[in-house]
Structures are given as C-alpha cells and as structure tokens.
C-alpha cells in the first residue's frame, strides 16, 4: 500500500459510495454487508482461480499458519522444488526447469527478461501494442495499454530499450474482429531496434488490452520469428494460467511455444 499526501486543499476524494463492501465469499460469489450476492466474473482480478473458501485450500492454509507462515526462501527450497516439478510436468513441451521466488507477475516478467538478456548478450525488448506486463516502473514501460506507460520508459531501468509496434493489429472493416500481423512485429524489429532483440514478450490473451486472443497462426509465426532473430520468446501467463483458458497453461490453448513462461496471480490462489 502506498499513502500519498495531496498538496491541494480539499483534494481528498472518496469512491466508497460507488463500490460495494464485500464481507465474505463462497465459490464464485461475493457477499456484501446486506447479504447481496455478486458474481465475481474476474476471479478477484485473475487471482482466485479456486474461488472463495475452497475447503482444501482453507485446510492447507490453516495447517501452514499453525506451523510457519513465513521463512526465508533459502529454507523453503525443498518445498519450492516440489512445486516446480509439478508445474514442469504440466508445462508445454520444452519447458523443463523452473524458478520460484515470489508470486508477483511484475517481478516474474522482469526476471524472465533479465534471463533473456543474459542468455543472448543483448538488451532490447519487444512487446505488443495493447500489452500489459505489470505495474512496476520497468514493466509499465513494457506495457502498451496502461496510461503511466506514456511517461515511463523501460530504457530508464534496463540496460537497453523497450520498443513495441505502434500497431501490431489491424481492425478488419465490418468484421468487428482483430487481426494480428506478424509482419508488423518484424517491421518493428527491423526498423525500431538494432535488429538484435533479447526477447519478445507476449500474453496468450491480452487481458487489459481488450481480451484479445492470439490466433494460432500468429503464435506459430511468432515462434518462427523469434528463431529467425535468435531471441527468446516469453509468454506472460500471469493472467492466463491454471485453467482460465481451459488448460493448465494458456499457451496450450493458443498454440504458443515459448522459451520461458512467467506465472503469478492464480499460482497463489489469491495469497
């Protein structure tokens, strides 16, 4: 939580009148003080994949609280490795290792990009228009649909430059659909970078960008494009993992074959 003091008299505003106050939840439902039920259609902003008060989750959390509720990650390696092995067994082909640090999507994406930069010896990052990869200073600079990204640039925080296509999708007149073009991505790599990006980072479904599902053909071409330029393909699955698209990993739903997958939100089931 961040507290901000206003320098303007009378600038304090409240939106309490517009938002309900939830006092409980069960399954997919949230409950207000007057016992009104609300269907939580966004699963606690993509966090509560198991809903509220799932008995196995409640029992597991209760048992953990009664033993250790926090310990340095150095002492949790055995538990982390056990979880990673379960994730790897369900991961798309080629994903064979994992690293668990925390459950924040922004830092997961930052970590993945660092890995790509170290592996390739390059610095530049390509993301898609309308992307959302986090709310830290670095990941905000990677995003294309988050207002502060206009004033925050990733190049200020990474040893490189973040570039994204000004328009990687074109509206088809009269169809109401959204057509992604791999040539737009290629054009950005050729014209807006030094031609040697460290990585391309994409979401299987652009959540904040309008729930745009990456077409299978586009995902296949994206894999070929990453191989052509010798860069790492990162799938940001912070919002799409663990059943939200009908698969354990959203990559399987759209046919994306990444080198790295980042996780968060649903991985902690709300915690």
Question: What amount of the residues lies in strands?
Answer: 5-15%
Quickly give the structural class.
alpha/beta
Give me the side-by-side strand order of the main sheet: 5-4-8-11-12
Distance between the termini: 16 Å
Low-confidence runs (pLDDT<50, min 5 residues)?
1-12, 151-160, 171-176
What would you call the shape? Answer: globular
- What helical percentage do the residues reach? 25-40%
Biggest sheet, in brief?
5 strands, parallel
Counted by DSSP, the helix tally is 8
SSE ordering: EEEHHHHEHEEEHEEEHEHE
How is this structure best described in words?
The chain has eight helices and twelve strands. The protein has helices spanning 43-46, 55-65, 77-89, 105-120, 137-142, 182-192, 216-229, 250-254, and strands at 22-26, 29-32, 37-39, 125-127, 162-163, 169-171, 178-180, 199-202, 205-206, 212-213, 232-236, 260-262. A five-stranded parallel beta sheet has the order 5-4-8-11-12. The longest helix is centred in the middle third of the chain and has 16 residues, at 105-120. The model is unreliable at 1-12, 151-160 and 171-176 (pLDDT under 50).
Give the arrangement of secondary structure elements:
Elements (H helix, E strand, L loop, with lengths): L21 E5 L2 E4 L4 E3 L3 H4 L8 H11 L11 H13 L15 H16 L4 E3 L9 H6 L19 E2 L5 E3 L6 E3 L1 H11 L6 E4 L2 E2 L5 E2 L2 H14 L2 E5 L13 H5 L5 E3 L9
Question: What's the short version?
Answer:
Helix content is 30%, strand content 14%. With 271 residues, the chain is α/β, with parallel strands linked by helices. The strands form four sheets. A five-stranded parallel beta sheet has the order 5-4-8-11-12.
């Amino acid at each position: 939580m961040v507290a901000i003091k206003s320098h303007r008299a009378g600038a304090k505003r409240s939106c309490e009148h517009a938002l309900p106050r939830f006092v409980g939840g069960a399954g997919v439902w949230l409950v207000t003080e007057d016992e009104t039920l609300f269907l939580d259609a966004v699963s606690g902003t993509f966090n509560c994949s198991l809903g509220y008060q799932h008995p196995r989750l409640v029992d597991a959390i209760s048992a953990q609280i009664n033993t250790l509720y926090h310990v340095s990650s150095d002492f949790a390696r055995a538990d982390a490795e056990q979880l990673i092995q379960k994730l790897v067994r369900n991961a798309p082909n080629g994903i064979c290792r994992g690293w668990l640090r925390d459950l924040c999507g922004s830092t997961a994406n930052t970590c993945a990009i660092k890995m790509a930069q170290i592996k390739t010896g390059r610095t530049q990052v390509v993301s898609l228009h309308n992307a959302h990869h986090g709310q830290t200073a670095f990941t905000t600079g990677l995003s294309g649909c988050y207002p502060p990204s206009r004033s925050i640039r990733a190049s200020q925080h990474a040893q490189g430059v973040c570039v994204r296509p000004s328009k990687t999708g074109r509206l088809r007149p009269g169809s109401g659909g959204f057509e992604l073009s791999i040539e737009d991505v290629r054009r950005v790599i050729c014209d807006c970078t030094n031609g040697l990006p460290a990585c391309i980072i994409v979401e299987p479904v652009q959540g904040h960008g309008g729930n745009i599902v990456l077409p299978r053909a586009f995902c296949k071409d994206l894999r070929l494009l990453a191989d052509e330029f010798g860069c790492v393909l990162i799938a940001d699955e912070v919002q799409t993992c663990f059943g939200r698209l009908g698969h354990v990993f959203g990559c399987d739903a759209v046919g994306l074959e990444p080198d790295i997958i980042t996780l968060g939100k649903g991985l902690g089931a709300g915690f």
